[in-house]
Design goal:
Chain A is an alpha/beta fold. Chain A has a single domain, classed as Rossmann fold (3-Layer(aba) Sandwich). Helices cover 32% and strands 17% of the residues of chain A. Chain B has 356 residues and is of the alpha/beta class. The mean pLDDT of chain B is 95. The longest helix of chain B has 18 residues, at 134-151. The chains are: A alpha/beta (262), B alpha/beta (356). Chains A and B meet through strand 1, strand 2, helix 2 and helix 4 of A and strand 2, helix 3, helix 4 and strand 9 of B. The complex binds thiamine diphosphate, iron/sulfur cluster and magnesium ion.
């Protein structure tokens, strides 16, 4: 990809100071100036999650439980109540909240390292219990925050810092397809997988998240939306190549679509 | 009105917990903690509370953490290994400034360090109360919930197999007492959309990039709070015959009750022995221990482990008297229950040996 797509070349300094033309920050995001990398998919997913809360008028009953990963930075940027949990432990914390506040709307935000590595038993038990909470999995196939190592969702052949020649099933084992697993549980009501690598997929992400929320509001049981997100930094690809890399690497294995509906 | 009944320790503690306003309990079976979980499962539905048989101790402490954020009084607990699994969360719950009661029904006395040193990562402490018998456990269980709410911190009640399985006649408070009102810091979602939604995090609050978001400042505030507890929590101790004692014997928990009895009998026989039984293990009643030991020639620590509380006794007496360890590990055949050395003749013999 050539650089002229990235930069407007000019020898002259700007003649006018930069001006904010419009602010498209959703109402429930208080601080849009986050620290995540350019081209990261996580802010797009969180944006969709917050817009859906606003649209369903859930802002005043929502408690969002954050895991630990790059997305954790957003715990301090939102205008919904937040509980910060440990790496992997958000579903049990969300369970305690929901059991004491059955009328509340309870959400977790976790990554693949958080939910599928460290906290796999938590999310599966919550699903099996039919816990009436919604879990959002931001799946980029790496530990982004610690610098791009292999997670359990890394696909075969995918190169990471700890699978340098590509993930080899003989050495590194096979990826876990979390949503497929959760969909087999009797306690899960809504399970869907989507991505944020193009406008169509972003719209679909918002749609799936909305359906998951509606399923919790209806008391249907456990809901999970897995969102494939770009991590150009952890993948060691150019910012603009993130969406395509997602399409070629993660999407063929972690298939997009609704896996279970109430 | 409290009702006087013959009751097993774990049931008495469960009733005391519900009477104190506990409305959420969760745990994973492990001897000798299991009965407490069973009694809570039977009692909590009577007051519209929730008891969950968690899938693991990791999830138990997580669920209790979540329940605590809603302002309802929550508790969990376990035994040795299970408590080890919970330490990561217990450390963070302390820094998130959440009230929680943790029942540590230990196997023997090997877990004193785990209980009192803040067994997890990080620079923290929490309050630890060690009852010697069922009536005291009822009292301290209620105190634990009050202290947890007052200080917004985990409070551990450290018991053992002996305490959990002994029947004693005690006055247990009625469980239908109404639960305390929810504190104003509690989460319920309602501040969402206000521009200042609440956040409850072991990493502190504030909006990123704005004033007030400062992890260093949060940890400094946590340290200040621990210091405030260290000096502000009333140290509890049971002591006797120390004024003219040649030897003062220190012991805690159920074992402390046996040591106390041994000292009583030795006094009857004319030996100048006294005893001290710390009840708050953190903060340790250092001043009272120092004072009790000040007239004696020696302090002996009796614990059924390789010597753990003896460190605190040494720190409390600061070299003013020699401190000898006269305990030692003692296990029954199962490793869960009551060590054979928890008997008065054996303890008396060790005390007499230290006296000479
Ligand atoms: C118990 C524990 N182990 C390891 C870590 C270190 N750690 C912090 S973030 C992270 C990776 C998070 O990966 P993921 O959830 O996929 O989020 P991402 O950064 O990719 O968005 C790890 C391993 C931790 N915080 N806690
Ligand atoms: S490392 Fe990856 S997941 Fe983390 S902020 Fe950067 S792009 Fe996003
Ligand atoms: Mg990740």
């Amino acid at each position: 990809m050539s650089d002229d797509r990235l930069f407007l070349s000019t020898d002259q300094p700007p003649t006018e100071p930069a001006a904010l033309v419009d602010d498209f920050t959703p109402g429930l995001i208080t601080q849009a100036n986050h620290h995540l990398c350019p081209g990261c998919g996580e802010p797009i997913a969180i944006r969709a999650a917050m817009e859906a809360i606003e649209e369903l008028e859930l802002a005043q009953s929502t408690i969002t439980v954050f895991g630990i990963g790059c997305y954790t930075a957003f715990a301090h940027n939102l205008d919904v109540e937040v509980v910060q949990a440990l790496h992997g432990r958000a579903p049990s914390v969300a369970t305690g909240i929901k059991r004491m506040l059955p009328e509340g709307f309870v959400l977790t935000v976790q990554g693949d390292g958080d939910m599928v590595n460290e906290g796999l038993q938590e999310v599966l038990h919550a699903a099996a219990r039919g816990e009436n909470i919604t879990c959002l999995l931001l799946n980029n196939g790496v530990f982004g925050e610690t610098g791009g190592q292999m997670t359990t969702t890394t696909t075969l052949g995918q190169r990471t810092k700890t699978s340098i020649e590509g993930r080899d099933p003989h050495q590194h084992g096979h990826p876990i397809l979390l949503s497929d697993l959760a969909a087999t549980m009797d306690g899960s009501a809504y399970v869907a997988r989507c991505a944020v690598n193009n406008a169509g997929n972003v719209a679909r992400t918002k749609r799936y998240i909305t359906r998951a929320y509606e399923s919790q509001m209806a008391g249907a049981g456990f809901s999970l939306v897995e969102i494939l997100t770009m991590c150009p930094t952890g993948w060691f690809v150019d910012t603009l190549d993130g969406p395509e890399y997602l399409q070629d690497t993660l999407a063929p294995v972690h298939n997009i679509g609704e896996l279970k509906t109430p | 009105m409290s009702e006087r009944v013959l009751i097993e320790g774990s049931e008495a503690m469960a009733r005391a917990a519900v009477a104190a306003g506990c409305r959420f309990f969760t745990g994973y079976p492990m001897t000798p903690f299991t009965e407490l979980l069973e009694h809570m499962a039977a009692l909590l539905p009577e007051v519209n509370g929730v008891c969950m048989n968690a899938e693991s101790e990791l999830e138990a402490v997580g669920m209790a953490w979540g329940a605590a954020t809603t302002g309802h009084l929550a508790a969990t607990g376990s035994t040795g290994q299970g408590l080890s699994l919970m330490q990561e969360s217990l450390s963070e719950i302390t820094n998130a400034r959440l009230p929680l009661v943790v029942f540590n029904m230990a196997r023997g006395q090997g877990d004193y360090f785990q209980a009192t040193r803040g067994g997890g990562h990080g620079d923290y402490r929490h309050i630890v109360l060690a009852p010697m018998d069922v009536p005291e456990a009822v009292e301290l269980t209620q105190k634990a919930f009050a202290m947890a709410g007052q200080w917004r911190t985990p409070v551990m009640v450290l018991g053992d197999y002996y305490l959990g399985h002994t029947y004693q006649a005690v006055s247990v408070p009625p469980i239908h007492a109404t639960a305390p009102e929810l504190p104003d810091w509690a989460l319920n979602g309602s501040t969402g959309g206000s521009g200042a939604a609440k956040i409850m995090s072991p990493l502190g609050g504030g909006i990123e990039g704005e004033e007030g978001f400062d992890l260093g400042a949060h940890y400094a505030a946590c340290a200040e709070h621990i210091e405030a507890m260290a000096t502000g929590v009333e140290p509890l101790i049971d002591a006797g015959f120390c004024d003219d004692a040649e030897l003062v014997v220190a012991a805690y928990g159920s074992v402390g009750k046996f040591v106390r009895y041994a000292c009583l009998r030795l006094r009857d026989a004319g030996h100048r022995v006294g005893y001290i039984r710390p009840i708050t293990l953190w903060p340790f009643p250092s001043e009272a221990v120092h004072k009790a030991a000040s007239g004696s020639a020696k302090v002996a620590a009796y614990e059924q482990n390789m010597g753990q509380m003896v460190d605190d006794v040494r720190l409390a007496t600061m070299g003013s008297v020699p401190v000898e360890f006269i305990g030692g590990p003692s296990w029954d055949h199962s490793g869960f229950g009551i060590g054979p050395d928890i008997n008065v003749p054996d303890i008396s013999e060790r005390i007499l040996e230290a006296l000479t």
